[in-house]
Amino acid sequence: MRRARTMMVAACVALAGCGSGSNDQCGKGSNDQGVSFRALGVFQEVQEQVAPAPDTLPNLENHPGDSGRIVSLSQTTVIPNDGNGDGDLDGGFLGMQNNLESQSLNVKGVSVEIVIPGALLPNPVATDFVAVAVALGPAVVAEGEEATNSAFVQTLFVQPDIMAFLNQNQTLLPPAPFTMNVVMTLTAVSDSGDCFDSNEITYTVSVQP
Asked: How are the residues of the chain apportioned to helix, strand and coil, as percentages rounded to the nearest 5?
């Protein structure tokens, strides 16, 4: 499912031409600041207080922001994780919007860069491309039709092997607590075959001892 991933290790520093790769899948020239295809941010569900009522998933009318989370490298295996221990993942819904008037967009995935200020590894310390299969309708619809140009999709944007890599290389990371920035860019293809990279969004993770 995942197309490309790079993890930087200490030996990489000594190798000529060892790079982190790029999350620029399509080029942003035709989509400056998300004018055509926009990443809205990261959102969370509304937790219901009375079991077994299901949580309310984010939608256009109700989409609380997910501004970040606190994790432990030794205990957290993915992001988003099950923060409240109820058996399902919490938050981590990527909001996306197609602003093309007459064309649909097929979202292919999200490019991820893990940036840790102060790390002994080159930044970004890891990159990934996580597949996301979702179709967004055109921004303009006929009177009486429901718009389908926005979606909120939950995905594991920090995969288990990246979390394991960070856990195994803690000596190359700053002493906890430290901040880990997850920088994400969505990629989509229009009906005409044009490729769009969204604006960047940054999700902040506080790594505790």
From this structure: 10, 35, 55
